[in-house]
Amino acid sequence: MNDKYLYNRLEDKKVFDRAFVYAVDDRINNKKFCNFFEINFYRDRKKDLHKEISEIVKEPDKFQHSVCFSYYLPKENLCFRRCIYTPFKELVLRYMLIIVIVERTEYGLSQRCFSARAASPDKRQKYLLEPFPKAWNKFADWQKKIVDSQETVDDLEPSQTENIVEQKDYQILVETDISLFYDTVSHEYLIQIIINELDITEDCNFIKLLKKLLQFRVTGYSFIDGKLFISNFLQGLIIGNSIEGYLANLYLKDLDEALENSGAEFGRYGDDIKVFVRDINDATYYIQIIQEFLFKKGLNINTAKTKIIYKKEEIRKYIQKSKICESYDEEREEEKKFQIKTKVKFPIDKKIDESGKYFGNDYDVDVDAEIDNEEDAVIWAKYLNEKLSPPKSYSSTKELELIIKQIEKLRDVMKKFGKPCKICAWLTVKFCFLNYHNSIQKSAYKEMIGILEDNEINSWVKARILHHLISPKRGSISYIKRLKTSKNRMKKMKLVLEKLASYPAIELQINSLYAIYETLESKSEITDVVKRLIPKPIPQPIKDIISQLRETDFSDHKLPTFDELIPELIEEPELLEEDYY
What we know:
- The chain has helices at 2-11, 13-28, 36-43, 46-58, 88-105, 132-154, 165-168, 181-184, 187-198, 205-214, 244-251, 253-261, 280-296, 312-322, 374-387, 397-407, 410-416, 421-433, 438-453, 459-470, 479-482, 487-501, 506-519, 526-533, 540-550, 562-565; strands at residues 68-76, 79-85, 172-177, 216-221, 228-233, 265-269, 272-277, 307-309, 327-328, 574-575.
- With 581 residues, the protein is of the alpha+beta class.
């Protein structure tokens, strides 16, 4: 009965239409990577894609997963986060399955699970799951509520607390997470959980298709010898899509239930678990419960990231620091007309105002001071992005020189620190193309070229800079096309792009090719560019792009805007904070 119901749901055109919208939004607004070649290809072939997916749903045994590719985001000093790019067709299929799974299982998840929850009905036109900032802030608000309720208890007379102190007298916050969680999820265990949750058989088409989507081939370039490799993805969940968190919720559902049944005041966001306790004995007890359930799945807590915070005031500060308090939309930044403050001041130390926000009160520091730690680098980058919006005029030449000095630090910061790289990539483009003084734009362009040519800069960071250059703009042309108005700058950029297209990093190759593609007079020349620039053997994702371009009608080519890609989409502000992993 359930097998047939799930099959019918996957056959439902409305489920495909929703999955298509979610997948396009996932790609366009993804803070990690977007392949604009794919978006261009599938926007005009939605009917063909639906027909192809319908055949896959009918006969999943014949389905062959396209080759994915890996790329690496700077996470923190010396460490990177491996992400996997899923081809668009497979992403739509994943969304279709998750839509059906959410419909049948969301109601059974614990309310203490805050990540990857189903979006409210008024948001489901665009989102399947709640966006990260809203979900994460709910997690932070729950923690604040616990602390606030405890302070309320502290203010009462002893006779008034007789019946409630025992429940709310939390003196300690325990925080832990699961070691290498997304990389070590067992597919076999996950499949069995879904079979039980949906009450279906293992040989039904739904499970056959899910198994095919969970295991696939991944290509990339080796750090050891720079050669292209292909490996099999046999365990774990993909980092790089927005929907894998829901599968993680199902995987940890029994842990949530165990903590809830034990009476723990806990909350979980992905693999991040926080428990409020009265004393160290309670802390030990709940950590033991967590470990017991994780051991059953071949997992364990990350001891290096397990923290115990004792004082209420320290707990409050810790919670406030994790709250997302600012946001911005890179694509709409150009439309805003902010005035720069008269006096330019740069916070290089760790000072944060009482509200917990990074940007409250300006204060004087030495603008020539070297940024020597990652936390300061993040604060510095956020300050530049928030405070230095395009002005109409400047108060003095000295003010211009101060701004240029900060721009000249971007490359050094990107080399030294991982966390601020995403914001710094945007700053590089922002200062170059928004309505700044010519001397600022000139300095920023020089810095951008230097960053793109620097072999010590992470390849994803360069790809992210190119992402901003090639992204469609509302009512305007992309930044890469604007460069064509300056022959000298465009000439230099073309040389840089050709060098980047030859670099052994697929995400950088794709964005470099798209940037070149957008500057060609004849779009059909792109296949010759690939043959000339991409190292041999050519990676399968690049071959797929060439196959798609062969089916493209170049006579009617134009760069689509986000609104043209999917009329239903309404963009949300982009996070200022680095992505949560």
